[in-house]
Structures are given as C-alpha cells and as structure tokens.
Amino acid sequence: MKHITLLGTKHLLIAITCVLGFLATPAFAEDEAAAVTPSYIELTPDFIVNYNASGSRLHYIKTKISLRTDSNREGVILANMPLIRDSLVMFLSSRNSEQVTGAIAREQTREEAKVAINETLKEETGAEPVMDVLFFSFVTQ
After folding, report:
1. CA gyration radius for the chain?
2. What one-character DSSP code corresponds to residue 126?
C-alpha cells in the first residue's frame, strides 16, 4: 500500500511540474514581445516630387511620410536619413499616373517604397530596419 501512495505522489508531482512549465512559457514570450516596441520616425520636410505622366504638363506628388521600425533599430534609420530621403525621391519620381492614383495603387506604392528603402539600407548597413512606410498625406496634381 505504501508503494501505491508513493507512486501516486510521484505522478502528481510530475503532472504539476508539467502544468507549471506550460503556464510559465507564455510569460517569457510576452516579456520578449514587450521588449521590442515600435518607433515612428517622421520624415521632414514633406516630399514634393514630379512623377512620370503623359502629356507636356508636369505632375507632382506631395506627401508626408513616417517610417515604422522597432526601437532597437531607430538609430540605423536616423544615421542614414540622407540615403533614405534620396531613395524615396528617386522611387516616387519614377512612379506613373496609374501607380499613384487610387487607394490600391497607393497601398502598393507604400509597400514598394518600404522595399526600396530597405534595399538601400541593406547595401549600406546590412540591416532592413523599416517595418512600414506610412503616408500621412498623399496628394497628386
């Protein structure tokens, strides 16, 4: 009888240890996720560039842009701001009317701008710190 009680106690301790192990794991994951906080960097002044359009009249994009990154990579963006601004000017000026007109086209432009910036920064720093390009305003004329 003594062996049965001792065996039952061992199983109970093993079961409790397993349950506590499962409960503790999400706490560590939450701590790691909380350690990385987003950071938003506003690019000033606003961008005003002419873009490719048919006809003899010049067409312009005026936009206010912010970049989303994590707080650990903010320094990479700030240290390379001239490269980022140049990359955006070259990218925006290469757009055509179809690529800047309408919500779907602007969303695609936003995603492609992120890729262009990250490619430039990867060549210079080896990092791709931009998580999102956010347009506060986007006016074409």
Report:
1. 26
2. S
Candidates 53, 58, 59, 80; CA nearest to 69 is 80
**How many structural domains does the chain have?**
2
pLDDT at 34: 55
Position 77 confidence tier, pLDDT thresholds 50, 70, 90:
very high
Q: Are residues 30 and 44 in the same domain?
A: no
**Six-digit token string for 132:** 């999102």
Residue 136 CA to residue 77 CA, distance in Å, equals 19
Q: What is the pLDDT of residue 104?
A: 93
Span 8-67, pLDDT tens digits: 666 655 666 555 555 555 555 555 555 679 999 999 999 999 998 777 788 999 999 999
In a shared domain, residues 6 and 45: no
Q: Which domain holds residue 98?
A: 38-140
